[in-house]
């Protein structure tokens, strides 16, 4: 049994999610590919991003990095280690 190629898509802000929506849909619909959708959580309002994902009819994210919490310095530090 062949292993399907796994495609990782990471988005975190509204513009990124909108731009990546067609790619996410294409990968999700291809039976030859395995999609892993990660939300970085960097947008100031994660609930708004979840609503956008729903409106764009995208799958729920497989993970959320929750990079938005804390000060700018903490965000930069957190993203550096991810």
Describe the protein in words.
The protein is α/β, with parallel strands linked by helices and 82 residues long. The protein has a single domain (6-81), classed as Glycogen Phosphorylase B (Rossmann fold, 3-Layer(aba) Sandwich), CATH 3.40.50.2000. Helix content is 44%, strand content 17%. The protein contains 3 helices and 3 strands, in the order βαβαβα. It has a 3-stranded parallel β-sheet with strand order 1-2-3, with helices on one face. Helix 1 crosses helix 2 (46-55). The chain is globular and about 45 Å long. 16% of the residues are buried. The model is unreliable at 77-82 (pLDDT under 50).
Low-confidence stretches: 77-82
Tell me, rounded to a whole number, the average pLDDT.
80
Q: Kindly report the name of the CATH homologous superfamily.
A: Glycogen Phosphorylase B
Number of domains: 1
Describe the global form: globular
Q: Could you tell me the radius of gyration in angstroms?
A: 14 Å
Instruction: State the CATH architecture.
Output: 3-Layer(aba) Sandwich
């Amino acid at each position: 049994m062949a292993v399907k190629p796994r495609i990782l898509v990471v988005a975190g802000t509204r513009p990124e999610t909108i731009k990546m929506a067609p790619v996410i849909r294409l990968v999700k619909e291809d039976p030859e590919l395995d999609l892993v959708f990660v939300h970085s959580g960097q947008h100031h309002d994660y609930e708004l991003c979840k609503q956008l994902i729903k409106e764009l009819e995208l799958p729920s994210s497989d993970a959320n990095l929750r990079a938005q919490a804390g000060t700018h310095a903490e965000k930069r530090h957190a993203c550096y280690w991810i």
